[in-house]
Each structure stands twice: as C-alpha cells, then as structure tokens.
Specification:
mainly alpha; Growth Hormone, Chain: A; 3 domains; about 0% strand; globular; Major facilitator superfamily (MFS) profile domain-containing protein; Proton-linked_MCT; transport
C-alpha cells in the first residue's frame, strides 16, 4: 500500500517491456517485499524486547505501527524528493536510511530510541525506496504493466513468508541486537536495487522534439485536471470509502502483529510459532491473483464493491473466530482464513476506490485515503496492546480487531447501497466552473514555465538557436494562446 507517486516518464521514450525491464522488476519485487513484510515480521522480536526493557505489548506494538504509518503517510514528501533529485538517488538514499535505522536500533538502550531508529528512520527509508520503485516499474513496462505490477506486489507475501522464520532463527542464534544488525544488512539490498534502476533517457537528437511533445501533453493535462483535486472531498462515495478504510485499518493489521506472540504464549516452540506468519503469506500469494482475475471478469466486475464489503466482513468474522483459538492447530486454521480474506482485500481495495471516484480523481483520492489510513495504523496495534496489558487475554485483542473490521464492512456496504449507487455522482455546474477557474490560473502560470523549459533543454544539450527552434517556440506560443482563449469563448 503506501501512497502513489504519479510520474508519466519521458513522453516520447517507448517502454522497453523487456531486457533491462526484468532487472527493474526484480528490484521492485525486493523493495516491495521489505516495505510491506518487515513491519509485520519484526514482531518476532517483541518477546525479547519486552523482557529486555520491562515493557508491555502496547509499547512494542508501536514499532510496527510507526513503520506502517511512515510507509503510508510520507507520500507527499517522497513525491517532492523525486521531483528534485529523481527516482534512482532517492531509492538509494532510502535503502541507506532503512539500513542505518536498524543498525542504530541494535545499539539502543530504551524503547523510545528504538521507536526513533527502527520506526521513524527505517520507515522513512522504506518509503523513500518503495514509491519511486513503483514509478520506475511503470516507466519500464507498458504492454506488460499489469503482469509487472502483479509480480512486484507478490514480493509482500513472499517476504512475509521468509522474514518471519528467518527473524526467529536470528533471534535464537544472535539475540535481538544481532538479529537487528543482520536485518539491517538484508535491508541494505534496497540500495542495491535502487542502483539497478537506471532512468530511461531520450536520444540527444530528439531533445527538442521531446520538449515539444511534453508541452503539448502538459497543456492538455492543465485543461482537464488539477494536480490536487480538492473537490474529491465533496464526493459521497469518497467520504464513505475513506471512513470505512480508516476504520478497517484500526483492526486489520492487529492479527499479523500479535499472532506469533499468541503462539509463543500458548506453549508452541518459538520457531514453530514464527511459521504462522509464513502461512498467512503463502495463502496471500495465492489469494490475491485469484480474486484479482475473478473480479476482473466482465460479469463480476460491476459487483466488485459488494465483494469488497464481503471481504471485510469475512476478515472481521475470521478475527472473531480466531479469538477462541487456544491451540496451534486452531491458529493455523485462523491464519489460512485470514490469509484468504487479507488477499481479497489487498486485491480489491484500489480497484474499488477507482470505481468509486473515477480515474480522473484517483490519484488525489488515493493520497488522501492513505494519509487517513496512516493515522489509523498508528493507533490500531498499540491500542490492541493496551487491551492485552489490561486484561492479559488475547481474546479481547482479536475481538477488538474483528469488531473494527466488521464495522468498516457495515459502513461501506450500507453507504454503497443507500448513497454511492444514487445518481448525481458527477460534479455539478459549480464544481465545473471552479475547475475552469483553476485551469485558467494553471495555464497562465504555464505560459512562462513551458517556454522556459524548452530554452533550458536547448541550453543543456548545447543546441544553438536556429530558425527551426524559433519556429518551434512561435508555434508553442500560438498553441498556448489558442488554449488560453478557449475558456474566454466559453463564456
């Protein structure tokens, strides 16, 4: 999950869809795996941290919460960094940050410093690596983009299946400090993967033509959409989806954070208990593509929002049933059904959001939804830890998680039936007038910026001013002027 950074890449450079693209896919697979699996896999160290610092479960749960919140909530910051420095340097810096955070955490002497090092610094590093990796993947693939995105997303359950038992082995062999150090070395591979993602570069001869094409593209974009569509907050479907997703995020991440410790406290050997997360990961690997294909069928696709509501209901009910599991066999059954429901939600959540708000508003809606989810993720696992510290029973922890997800299902399904399916989803005349006003401002600012872009590209490639270049600039001025007059004529 995590915020989406939109980048169209060079406009006239054809996506290779092969060759070095597969190397980029492998790099994105590794980065995605660490970004989403590590916040859950680190829970195998919680027992030792509790004994070391004499703290409760709620205190250790903050580590995973901070990691996930940083991954979800730093999208705007990552976008700014990418615009300033490019994808490759940002990814390499992110891998270095993530590694440094875990190295520093291995020397910490208090839980607060672990929050800062393993939570904030490592979480920021993973976010800086993950989001630009998706951008590069979409630049390298066009025809095979759905396949590439699906394979990259598979990194999350694959790494979850591996990192949990590996972390337990490191803990048993080297202790939590040694385990953190070795994990840091593994995460440093994100820097290596970032170095593999070389940017696509246009031929030097085509630089002027590229500038012209970019300007034409940007002018058309400025007429039909804004960078941030604030009107999406007035969209009933968006409000309902955001509310449901936020409530769901309070509970859906609780079981993966606690299930290993439930097994350990039930008398199951530590190494065996660590395989519970592996089971969730393996089932998730199978469930996501299956439900992605099923809901993509023409006859099924119109009912995707209802299937999404059922997936949340299924997940919440599974949590409630998991609350009465008091044996390793019961926990295995819980993990199987949780993996299925978790895979269903993962496969459908962004497809449903796009269905609700439309493609034009999707990027703005996605960023706002993930920011709301980041706040919920920061609260959910620590709140569940407080419940365990107060009661000493995992029963109430799973009831808390299941109730939150069931409530989100109720909110989404009810809103979908009574609000989101009604007419009037399109923006009214006032909203369209506001959009036209924003377009005028955008076009006015672009007059100078776009022409300056052409001049800078000519300068950087040591091109001399020629009659051809002057003709290009004259043509651009005419096109901008013509587009500028369109809103005036509309009046």
């Amino acid at each position: 999950m995590g915020d989406a950074v939109v980048d169209d890449g060079p406009s006239d450079i054809k996506a290779p869809d092969g060759g070095w693209s597969w190397v980029v896919l492998v790099g994105c697979f590794v980065i995605t795996g660490f970004s989403y699996a590590f916040p859950n896999a680190i829970s195998v160290f919680y027992h030792e941290l509790i004994a070391e610092f004499e703290i409760g479960y709620s205190d250790t749960a903050w580590i995973s919460s901070i990691l996930l919140a940083m991954l979800y909530g730093t999208g705007p910051l990552v976008g700014i960094c990418v615009n300033w420095f490019g994808c490759r340097p940002v990814m390499m810096l992110g891998g270095l940050f993530a590694c440094t955070g875990m190295v520093a955490a291995s020397f910490c002497t208090s839980i607060i410093t672990i929050y800062i090092c393993a939570g904030i610094v490592t979480g920021l590093g993973l976010a800086l690596s993950f989001q630009p990796a998706l951008m590069m993947l979409n630049q390298y693939f066009n025809k095979r983009r759905p396949l590439a995105n699906g394979l990259a997303a598979a990194g999350s359950p694959v790494f979850l299946s591996v990192l949990s038992p590996l972390g337990q082995t490191l803990l048993d062999t080297y202790g939590w400090r040694g385990g953190f150090l070795i994990m840091a070395g593994l995460i440093f591979n994100c820097t290596v993967c970032g170095a593999l993602m070389r940017p696509l570069v246009a031929p030097k001869k085509a630089i002027v033509e590229q500038a012209k094409a970019d300007i034409n593209k940007n002018i058309e974009k400025s007429r039909r959409k804004k960078l941030i569509d604030a009107n999406v907050c007035k969209h009933k479907g968006f409000v309902i989806y955001t509310l449901a997703a936020t409530i769901m995020s309070l509970g859906i991440f609780v079981p993966p954070v606690f299930v290993v410790n439930v097994g350990k406290d039930s008398g199951v050997p530590d190494t065996t208990a660590s395989y519970l997360l592996t089971i969730i990961g393996c089932i998730d690997i199978v469930a996501r593509p299956i439900f992605g294909v099923i809901t993509g069928l023409p006859r099924i696709r119109p009912y995707t929002p209802y299937i999404f509501g059922f997936a949340m209901l299924f997940n919440g009910f599974t949590d409630l049933m998991g609350s009465i599991s008091n044996s390793f066999g019961g926990l295995v059954v819980f993990c199987v059904f949780f993996g299925i429901s978790y895979g269903m939600i993962g496969a459908l959540q962004f497809e449903v959001l796009m269905t609700v708000v439309g493609t034009k508003r999707f990027s703005s809606a996605l960023g706002l939804v993930l920011l709301a989810e980041a706040c919920a993720v920061l609260i959910g696992p620590p709140s569940a830890g407080q419940i365990w510290d107060g009661t000493g029973k995992y029963l109430f922890v799973f009831i808390f998680a299941g109730s939150e997800v069931l409530l989100s299902s109720l909110v989404f399904t009810t809103g979908n039936i009574f609000c989101m399916r009604k007419k009037g989803e399109e923006p009214d005349c006032k909203e369209r007038s506001a959009e036209n006003g924003e377009c005028k401002k955008t076009e006015d600012n672009m007059r100078t910026i776009l022409l300056y872009t052409v001049q800078m590209k000519m300068f950087t490639t040591d091109l001399k001013e020629t009659d051809q270049n002057e003709n290009i600039k004259t043509e651009i001025k005419k096109k901008v002027k013509r587009i500028w007059l369109i809103p005036q004529r509309a009046k």
